[in-house]
Specification:
heterodimer, A: 27 helices, B: Arc Repressor Mutant, subunit A, 18% strand, globular
């Protein structure tokens, strides 16, 4: 019968578990009957019931395979007297018998069983934890309707070579009209106002300004109340707000009557129209959503502050959408060259945007943990082989007494499966602990970490891995130990311990372990060296003894209208008052304000240099503008190379001044003196009065970019960091400064309070995450491999006890025997290292992107790891070598 | 006590007995046996295909069944199927097993495990 349907194919495939004779005799009939049964069930009970029945039938077919093989094995050895068995003996009772036998024989060797179980637990635990992480972060769909259709539409900027820029409101409305790839588009931006009318400390909340299309686009509705209507999302629409579940609980006690109440955001009164469910978190971290209230002309086309999200139309791939949006951007660039020169589009799946940054590292780690499992299997196979050797006599005798080979293999396999399951159970416990520890690392740059956990599918994975491991490490020893005829085994006499073939197999397994461990340790070594290099990178400022506190001044009480810019007396008065109070604190040695703290990259603005190009076509570029107050450089420990710092004389009515960094000088004034030259941004010419040293504000692993420091006393920014340096513990400085700021204005929300050392540490968070994981895997691999080497050498010694005894009685030097055994261990290691070397060079390419300041093929790391592994191997062979040199000839010969 | 030549075959497994019962009134193919058992027991007993063929294998080996040539079942489709029927020995084993069970039922009644039968 030819297989036709999927069910036929599955059934045909399952038949492979039966002995050939059975397949030839009943295979075709069985397949036909199964199909008849499927059809009959479908006709009589419906498709769902039929599917369930088929699944049970498949399981039944599968379960019958092993006993059938056992039966075939019994029949195939006719010379062994067949014990009369009742037909009644079903697969279940055979299985239980095997299980009982396995439990009994493993219980007799608790030490051996414990070593195997712990080894398996380490392998399964590491794999389960890693799978939990990968599943939670990469595999699980984002919690939105049809998430695979959601795409982020970024703009790109050829001038700055960036690919994830925002879109301006006028461009967005043109997109809405011209695009052909999306069923719907939405856009959002955000701001961080202070929540008013609350008791106690003022709270600063994260508010997302969203188009009304966002919620239907994501497929979410309100938990209570409603989301926004189109007529609320127009330029002069009513002020309405949606609360997050958390804010609703926190500020309104979770009562439904919150709907209809007022919400004060920076003094503006919003009417609450609904509450979003707790599980809804888009854009991430939102406390409040309000309508964007945008129109095609409500903002300048040059203000690219919106992020656009789209739902791809049915069957439109993301590449097509990307082409479509780039076509539109080409039109918009022609129509509005002033604002859109150099801008294109970049459409990415939302899942790629969310997890794209960590995907390569996670997949790499998943591969690494797979290698750990490989070592685990090799290790346990080795352990079982040595045990199998010891039991060869028992097994050979059983075979001679009529036990079929299939039955014997089944017995050994049931033992390894039992070991695998026990190890798996312990491994799941380890995985729980591991995932917990990893979540505690909390690298800010790893997305969706709160989605990581050990759930049912992950447990299923653990079960599969445990059973698979049990079968993989069990099958070799099982087949190996059941095949030898009795005469051969008995002829080996008291020295029966496996034979040359098994010895070679064991050596090969040990070599594999060394090779794989080498690859992992080299990888970990490279990451550790990268981390070491990064920690020694000079950030360009002194982070120790520094703290920051963020403040955001509500526009209602601190007006800084654009028409009056840069005149905003109330804002300047606040700046001065805070700095004055900070400097009065006894232990404070420096205080300053900065729009962005030294590790924040800030943002870019188009600048022109006096006498340089004036248009984009001529080569005007965007550079980073970093407004800071007087005293910033001294406080942060950034040296001023030449010129002067800002002073209290640099007021809004004084000539505008700037300080540039060395990277800026290198780029724009390579051959001239920059002091006194003029540069223009935000419509005003400004004079360069100083040059500051470079700071790695892009991140420790990124070179410094050109930067222009503007004077905060001429730039009335209302949201900024207060930076303090002092000789007190960070928390004490933060608490004191918080009180001082509230002394100036008690209604302000103060947030982002932390030490700059913590910021520096966090900037390396994802690297530390990768390093710790790969390091742990490497350590695991190394210890397993050293156990493996120890096992092989010690087994070899026990096999040759007799020989050593004779040598000793003939006057051999014990030291030479010890040396002989040690070199044996070293030989295995060297072969493993040679293979591992090739693997490590291939693997290093895969992690090249995660390295810093170290080449993927780093001779120093390779040599260090080689020496290290050799030492580990020596240590592992030392014990058996010593034992060999202490063999008592009399004892060894008595074993005959 | 059943005759000596039947004793090695007794007692039968429930699957084997159901198969013999299903074939008591004529030959059937595999699915036919499954259907007969399911219909006769009103769905209470369902033999799964894997178990069915393993049991058939044993019954054939023990000489309780014999197989006939393949031929199509007009009620299903024109695919050819193998049919099975009881051998003489199979019929006698089935009878012996039925008697054994009915003796067990009589014993259960006499011990008041089952109510006495009212004719």
């Amino acid at each position: 019968m030819r297989p036709r349907s999927f069910g036929d194919r599955v059934a045909q495939w399952l038949l492979a578990v039966y002995p050939r004779a059975f397949r030839e005799r009943f295979g075709a009939d069985l397949l036909r009957t199964m199909r008849d049964a499927r059809r009959g069930a479908a006709a009589r009970r419906g498709r769902v019931a039929a599917t369930i029945i088929s699944l049970i039938d498949f399981a039944d077919v599968l379960a019958g395979g092993l006993p059938e093989r056992v039966r075939a094995g019994r029949r195939a050895s006719p010379h062994t007297p067949r014990v009369q068995r009742p037909l009644r003996e079903g697969p279940m009772s055979l299985f239980l018998q095997d299980l009982r036998f396995a439990v009994r024989s493993l219980g007799k060797q608790p030490g051996f069983s414990a070593v195997v179980v712990v080894t398996v637990a380490l392998g399964v635990g590491a794999n389960t934890a890693m799978f939990g992480i990968v599943k939670g972060i990469l595999l699980e769909p984002l919690p939105y309707a049809e998430p695979q259709e959601l795409a982020v539409v970024f703009q790109t900027d050829r001038m700055n070579n960036t690919s994830r820029e925002g879109v301006s409101a006028p461009d967005y409305f043109d997109w809405l009209e011209r695009q052909r790839s999306f069923d719907a588009l939405a856009a959002y931006s955000g701001f961080n106002p202070t929540l008013g009318g609350t008791a106690g400390e003022p709270e600063r909340v994260s508010v997302s300004l969203v188009t009304h299309t966002l919620f239907p686009l994501l497929g979410w509705g309100a938990e209570t109340g409603r989301t926004f209507t189109p007529d609320e999302d127009v330029p002069d629409g009513p002020l309405v707000a949606l609360l997050s579940h958390g804010l609703w609980q926190r500020q309104f006690g979770g009562v439904p009557t919150a709907i209809g109440q007022d919400l004060l955001l920076d003094g503006d009164r919003y009417t609450i129209v609904g509450v979003m469910p707790a599980a809804f978190d888009f854009p991430g971290g939102s406390d409040v959503w309000v309508p964007a209230r945008l129109g095609p002309t409500s903002q300048s086309r040059g203000m690219h502050n919106l992020i656009a999200l789209g739902r791809l139309s049915d069957g439109v791939p993301v590449q097509t959408a990307d082409r479509d949006m780039n076509r539109i951007m080409a039109e918009l660039e022609r129509e509005y060259p002033d604002d859109n020169v150099g801008r294109g589009a970049n459409v990415e799946l939302l899942s790629a945007t969310v997890t794209g940054g960590v995907r390569p590292a996670l997949l790499l780690l998943m591969g690494a943990v797979g290698l750990v499992l490989l070592i685990t299997c090799a290790n346990v196979a080795n352990l079982l082989l040595s045990r199998g050797s010891a039991r060869r006599r028992e097994i050979a005798v059983r075979a001679a007494l009529g036990a079929g080979r299939a039955r014997l293999v089944g017995r050994v396999l049931s033992e390894s499966t039992l070991l695998g399951l026990a190890g798996g159970a312990l491994g799941v416990v380890l995985a729980f602990a591991g995932v917990r520890a990893l979540r505690a690392l909390d690298p800010a740059s790893v997305p969706r970490l709160d989605n990581v956990g050990i759930d049912v599918p992950v447990l299923g994975f653990a079960l599969l891995v445990a059973i698979g491991t049990g079968l993989v490490f069990g099958i070799l020893p099982a087949v190996r130990s059941s095949g030898a005829p009795l005469s051969e085994v008995l002829a080996e006499g008291g020295r029966s311990a496996g034979g040359v073939r098994t010895g070679r197999l064991r050596s090969a397994l040990a070599v594999t372990q060394v090779a794989v461990a080498f690859v992992l340790v080299v990888g970990a070594g490279l990451l550790i060296k990268s981390m070491w290099n990064l920690m020694r990178v000079d950030p360009g400022f002194r982070a120790e003894q520094m703290v920051r506190l963020s403040v955001s001044l509500p526009g209602a009480r601190y007006p800084a209208p654009f028409s009056e810019w840069p005149n905003a007396p109330l804002v300047y008065r606040f700046h001065d008052a805070v700095l004055e109070r900070a400097n009065r604190l006894p232990y404070v040695t420096g205080a300053a304000l900065a729009l962005n703290h030294p590790m924040n990259p800030g943002w870019t603005t188009r600048i022109t240099i006096e006498g340089g190009p004036t248009t984009v076509e001529e080569g005007v570029e965007e550079e980073r503008i970093r407004p800071v107050s007087a005293g910033y450089f001294a406080t942060a420990g950034i040296p001023l190379r030449t010129g002067r710092d800002f002073t209290s004389a640099d007021r809004a009515d004084a000539p505008p001044v700037v300080i540039v960094n060395e990277a800026f000088v290198r780029k724009y004034f390579p051959h001239e003196a920059p002091l006194g030259r003029q540069i223009q941004f935000w419509g005003v010419m400004r004079q360069i009065v100083g040059i500051a040293a470079d700071v790695r504000f892009m991140g420790l692993d990124e070179p410094t970019r050109p930067a222009v420091y503007g004077a905060m006393s001429q730039l009335p920014f209302t949201a900024f960091d207060v930076l303090l340096r002092g000789n007190a513990p960070p928390q004490q400085m933060i608490d004191a400064m918080r009180a001082e700021i509230h002394g100036v204005d008690p209604q302000l929300a103060i947030f982002n309070t932390e030490s700059l050392e913590a910021i520096l540490r966090q900037s390396l968070g994802d690297r530390r995450f990768n390093m710790i994981l790969l390091g742990a895997f490497a350590l695991l691999a190394l210890s397993l491999a050293s156990v493996g080497i120890y096992g092989v050498i010690s087994y070899g010694v026990s096999r040759r006890t007799h020989e050593f005894g004779i040598r000793m009685s003939l006057g051999a030097d014990p030291r030479r025997l010890r040396y002989h055994v040690l070199t044996q261990g070293l030989r295995l290691t060297v072969v493993g290292l040679a293979i591992g070397f090739v693997g490590a060079i291939a693997a290093a390419r895969a992690i090249a992107g995660l390295l810093y300041g170290v080449a993927a093929v780093d001779p120093l790391t390779l040599v260090a790891v080689t020496v290290f592994l050799c030492l580990v191997a020596l240590a592992a062979s030392l014990l058996p070598a010593t034992r060999a040199s202490r063999v008592d000839p009399l004892v060894a010969l008595r074993m005959e | 006590m059943p005759p000596a030549d039947l004793r090695p075959h007794l007692p039968l497994t429930s699957v084997a007995f159901e198969i013999l019962l299903a074939l008591a009134d004529g030959e059937r193919h595999g699915y036919g046996i499954m259907q007969e058992v399911e219909d006769r027991t009103a769905g209470a007993v369902r033999i799964r295909p894997g178990s069915l063929y393993r049991a058939i294998g044993r019954l054939l080996d023990a000489g309780l069944l014999e197989e006939t040539d393949e031929r199509p079942d007009p009620a299903l489709d024109d695919e050819r199927r193998r049919y099975y029927r009881l051998t003489d020995l199979g019929r006698r084993v089935a009878v012996a097993e039925a008697e054994r069970l009915s003796r067990a039922v009589r014993t259960a009644r006499s011990k008041k495990l089952l109510p006495a039968r009212h004719a």
